[in-house]
Amino acid sequence: MLVSYNWLKQHVDLPKKLTPEELALRLTMSTVEVEGVNNQAKDLDNIVVGEIIKIKKHPNADMLKLVLVNVGKENLNIVCGGSNLKEGMKVALGKIGAKVKWHGEGELIELVKAKIRGEESYGMICASSEIGLSGLYPANSDKEVIDLGKIKVKNGTPLSEVIKLDDVIFDIDNKSMTHRPDLWGHYGLAREIGALYGAEVGKYEPPAVKEQKAKNKEQSFKLKVDVKDTELCPRYMAVVIDNVKIGSSPEWMQKLLMSVGLRPINNIVDITNYLLYDLGQPMHAFDAEQIVDNKKQITIEVRKAKNGEKFTALDEKEHELTSEMLVIANKKQAVALAGIMGGENSGVTDETTTIVFESANFDATNIRRTATALGMRTESSSRFEKSLDPNNAELALRRAVQLTLEVCPGARIVSNVVDESKFRQSTGLIELPFEFLNKKIGIELDKQEVVRILKSLGFGVEEKKDKFLVKIPTWRATKDITIVEDLVEEVSRIYGYDNIAGSLPSFPVIPPERNELRNLERRIKQIVALEFGFTESYNYSFVSPQLLKKIGIHEEHIELDNPIDKSRPLLRRSLLPNLLENVEQNAHNFDEVRLFEVGKVFWKNEPGERMNKSGDDLLPRQDVMLGIVFVKKGESVPFFQVSSAMQNLLMQLGCECKLQAKIFDPWIHPGRSAEVIVQDEHLVGAVMELAPVRQKEIGIDSRVAMAEINLSDLLEYIKDKNTYNKVALFPPVMRDIAFVVSGETEYSSVEEVIKKVDPLILEVELFDVFQGKNIEAGKKSMAFHIVYQSIEKTLESGDVDKIHEKVESVLKKKFDASLRK
Amino acid sequence: MKVQLEKIKQEFQKGLNEVSDVLMLEEFEKRFFSRRSGEMTEAMKNLKDLSGDARKEMGRLANEIKNELLEMLDQKRVDFNRGDSALLVKTEAIDVTQPKLPKQIGGHLHPMTIVHNELEDLFTSMGFMVLDGPELESTYYSFETLNIPATHPARENMDTFYIKDHSDWCMRPHTSPVQVRAMQKYGAPLRAVVSGRCFRNEATDASHDHTFYQMEGLVVDREISIANLIGTMKELLSGVLRRDVEVRLRPGYFPFVEPGFELDMKCLVCSGIGCGACKHSGWVETLPCGLVHPKVIEAGGLDPNEWTGFAFGLGSMRLAMQKYGIEDIRHLHAGDLRFLNQF
User: Fold this and answer.
1) A382-395 pLDDT tens trace
2) Are A297 and A374 found together in one domain?
3) Within-domain flag for A379
4) Where are the alpha helices (DSSP H) in A212-336?
5) Does B155 contact chain A (CB < 8 Å)?
6) B chain contacts of residue A590, beta-carbon cutoff 8 Å
7) Residue A242 is assigned to a structural domain of this protein
8) Which CATH architecture has domain B111-340?
9) Are B192 and B315 in contact (CB under 8 A)?
10) Residues A136 and A262 in one domain
11) A421, A436, A454: which is the final residue of a domain?
12) Per DSSP, what are the bridge partners of residue B211?
């Protein structure tokens, strides 16, 4: 919101030496964030009145002109793209050194001498948006420059003198005052400033509105308002004023309105806009003739719209309403969308002579929802949705009538004053113990200073022994201030956070409880990335059904109700689909892609954590998974890269693991897939290759290996290593054995069998597997190193021979192995 | 005796000059120092035939000479080794700048992981627990417990992802639900940071993403004050940035704290004079924080008359982008190795 320094000064006596910049900082530190301070005159330095002498074509650009501009003593060559240039026109000329906003956007830029398409330019003919004067000189297009019209000043006169700009404008971040309905007008801010500087704030007490007796016995209007839903409209005030003469509003009002970016329209509309920015109370003025029932009877209904009811607003668009929306209607039709915008055919025009002022209060949530649903956020709706004080409706109406009677000397109040009001406000009292206040802030405050602060903000304060009884002012009572902590904030922010010295709380020295799952995630990331050479990817938690279809995954996924990326509405059940997409994309740039991700997945229909503190409702299960993918150009069996990484990883985590062949869903290679089993019986994941046909479907050229491990499950089986084997004193003996077995024989069972033959067998290591030449079809040759060792003695060759022979015979018996010598 | 020693010394010096390789040096050493028959060894043996002062004096002299000779021997050995090195340079030199072949692919951690690890370590060292909670969260924990009533704009569709057929489930829009879950689980006093993934239903561009990361701190104890919050935040930021920082509080509104603050830090680029990085204000908006709202304490199962606390939020994604100068937030979720391989 834009705030005018001059406007504020109408309400509060600012300290003499205060600068606008100091005030802006103080407001930022104690009340709302002031994002910008624009000194109007300063901003117009080096911008002067110029007169166009001559316009020529630009030799190198169709859209540009070479313009000769007189600025008093000299003529300047200017390259300009303005659409409304003509000779003899008076323009706002930015000379070299002037500060402008390029095309009305971004930061101010200082003009320098420039060559534009080969032609020199000594300044710029300004458009209104480029020098912040859109309110004063509205442009029809962004190519239109300011036309100063017929003004009687010498060329070269500073523009600021011509338009008499002497204000300073604050740009306040609206987000910083969403909770402060009282600050959406200058008066509310003036009250804050009064509290900050201990300055006097003028009272807001316009005279009460009373029907005026007609001079010539003309009948007065009968105004009736029927509020159908007092929850949605707690207060509705209205009055009819006759003999209004539509014209321009007074210059002082126009100037203030323009300073905050509003365009003056006519005296009545300007008065409502003035109150919008003065008190923060939106109002509306109807043309009485457009809404009368018959000659002197006006009936206004505040009701919910009918489903499908059509309404054409001042924006000339037709809106279709729902039964949740509130309208202002006469007997025939809706004439305004309550609190948002008036109707096209009922507003004030140049011909209007009788008006109805509306000053009302509407439910914040309802207004916001309607405005959002219709895409019509207006100055009015954005104020109502903050929960305005219903008392302001009356103050605004009084002031509006007062101004109208001033501006239109013949105008008269010609109806009863309607005040349909049904609202309750809870204004306390709140008990504020003095000690509580000091403890919360962390310093010792002066009691009288606390009282001064609260009173200056409009709170009623009664001192009682060690506490204050505090009454909330109505403009803070709509939702802003409800509990004692709110008062702590009021006192401390006005006192000044800068005046509170920091101090450290005293904590007991207790080591924090370990988050074992997070520690496991970190260890795994370190090992997989830094030891096994995989790179970590972060994918979205959302996955596309098209991708799942391509891969061939048909499981049911949890779905977003309102996805922003319509192509990814599903919540991932597995990390692999998005990782496979990563592989496809990276394969264009890399021959080898090794990626992993650690993240949460979402399983429909499986119970997870509690939804609330009590009750049995559960969220879906969300386990942390590790996903790995690997592809390398020309690698026909990438499986082992991933399977050995998995096995090594689990071994490092102190977890005994084995792979067990298993056929999964059809998108997974049926002959190259295994379950990962830890501590003999617990399934924690899978290692597999993608089925070749799916791999091609996704667009990956080489075979893809992948693995997924459930870390939430695995966590239970991780053991901190806490034993070691004594270093053997006696030398080991190594023997090799090679044999041919059926091709289907699994390494893991062979290894297990050999290990069980004798306790002196310490290690069994596969060093070769071979199929093809010299080996019968359907069979394979396997070769192992076997290490024999005793912890009691040096083994004799004879001892080893005996066991080795036993190994041979067991292999023959169990696997029908034929030994190769 | 003395004459004998002098003679040995002379012969040693003469002989050593003639030694021309390592093998000869070994022979030469044996000739003088062999335990059985070395000339020097023999001479030393003769010492026992002397008596009294003579024995003492000769013993000293013999030792002196022996050490002198051994030193000369060592020097000769070093000279020979130097000669060997010269040979090795010729025959066994390698290109030490060449990488190991075949090339080994190294892996990389995601920049967010690196930043989170650093922050988590820092907080752990200050006694904070590191927590996370469900990413698909109930509206109860996401909003109600955090003093965000059903009529609050944050509850409307525009900001939060909701789940189809479950109007009371959403993708958590902040990590704050874990504040309440933590209080319920661990009670008080409590010091915890929550770090994790959050979601907002907003269009993606270079500086906004619908998926982002937050790190949020919570301290619950007796009699926590605004002064405590100021003091702690200053220490924490100094720890995160590894230098002294100046902070200031100004009002900020968040439903789950009261009072709420925006914490600004004196610009580290210009030290507060004003520059482009701080939009010429001298201060950089750094993090939202505040004293925990009594309703939130209550939702956590604690008595707000007994327990108080403060909370603060760190946008760890922005921190990572600043740390590495990442210009487009979308890189972080693109899975592109050309980006990821740089960390």
Assistant:
1) 999 999 999 999 99
2) yes
3) yes
4) 251-259, 267-278, 288-291
5) no
6) 337
7) yes
8) 2-Layer Sandwich (3.30)
9) no
10) no
11) A421
12) B199
Q: How many residues does chain B have?
A: 343
Nearest 10 degrees: Cα torsion A306, A308, A309, A314: 130
User: Do residue A602 and residue B136 have CB atoms under 8 angstroms apart?
Assistant: yes
Q: Do B225 and A439 touch (CB under 8 A)?
A: yes
What value does the mean pLDDT take over residues A11-35?
Answer: 94
Q: Does A493 touch chain B (CB under 8 A)?
A: yes
Residue A433 lies in a domain: yes
Interface test with A, best of B164, B246, B285 (most A CBs within 10 A): B164
Query: Is residue A361 located within the same domain as residue A449?
Result: no
Number of structural domains found in chain A: 6
Has residue A723 been placed in a domain? no
Structure tokens that stand for A230 in this block: 């007092």
Please answer yes or no on whether B132 and A497 come within 8 Å at the CB atom.
no
Residue of B nearest to A436 (CA): B223
Specify the 3-state DSSP secondary structure of A670.
strand
Within this chain, do residues A359 and A415 fall inside the same structural domain, yes or no? yes
Model-level pTM? Answer: 0.82
Q: Are residues A525 and A559 in the same domain?
A: yes
Tokens of A109: 């830029």
The backbone torsions φ and ψ at residue B326, rounded to the nearest 5 degrees and listed phi first, read -75, 125
The verdict on A534 and A639 lying in the same domain is yes
The C-alpha angle A678, A681, A682, rounded to 5 degrees, equals 55
A9 and A112 inside one domain: no
Look-up of token digits 């402008």: A100
Are residues A478 and A546 located together in one domain of the fold? no
* CATH code where residue A96 lies: 2.40.50.140
Domain-terminating residue out of A406, A421, A436: A421
Cα distances (Å, whole numbers) of residue A443 to A672, A772, B71, B177, B307: 70, 86, 78, 31, 19
**Residue A340: pLDDT over 70:** yes
Q: Is A727 on the interface with B (CB under 8 A)?
A: no
Structure confidence at residue B80 as a pLDDT band (50, 70, 90): confident
- Inform me whether the C-beta atom of residue B338 falls under 8 Å from chain A C-beta atoms: yes
Interface of B with A in 76-95 (CB under 8 A): none
Q: Classify strands A326-329 and A334-337 as parallel, antiparallel or unpaired.
A: antiparallel
Enumerate residues 234 to 263 of chain B having a beta carbon within 8 A of any beta carbon in chain A: 234-235, 248-253, 258-262
Which residues from B are below 8 Å from A536, CB to CB?
A: 107-110, 113, 340
**Structure token pair of residue B189:** 């006093």
Distance CA A808, CA A814 (A): 10
- Nearest Cα of chain B lies from the Cα of A547 at a distance, in angstroms, of 16
Q: What single-letter amino acid sits at A713? A: D
Q: What is the CATH number for A278?
A: 3.50.40.10
Task: Tell me which residue range forms the domain holding A812.
Answer: 733-820
Secondary structure of residue B314 in the 3-state scheme: strand
Indicate the helix (H) or strand (E) that contains A618. Answer: strand A618-621
Pairing label, strands A592-600, A334-337: unpaired
Strands B129-131 and B190-199: parallel
Q: Are B218 and B192 in contact (CB under 8 A)?
A: yes
How far is B204 from A654, CA to CA, in rounded Å?
Answer: 43
User: For position B271, what pLDDT does the model report?
Assistant: 85
Cα–Cα distance measured from residue A277 to residue B14, given in angstroms and rounded to the nearest whole number: 113
Of the candidates A143, A124, A51, A43, the one whose C-alpha atom is nearest the C-alpha of residue A90 is: A51
pLDDT of residue B39: 85
Which residues in chain B have Cβ-Cβ distances shorter than 8 Å to A504? 228, 231-232, 235
What ipTM was assigned to the predicted interfaces of this complex?
0.83
Scan for tokens 């979205």, then name that residue: A540
Residue A786 token pair: 């076997």
Report CB contact under 8 Å: B117, A522.
Answer: yes
CA distance A590 to A610: 44
Q: Per the CB < 8 Å rule, is A558 touching B294?
A: no
Residue ranges of the domains in chain B? 2-92, 111-340
Per-residue pLDDT tens over the stretch B111-126? 999 999 999 999 998 8
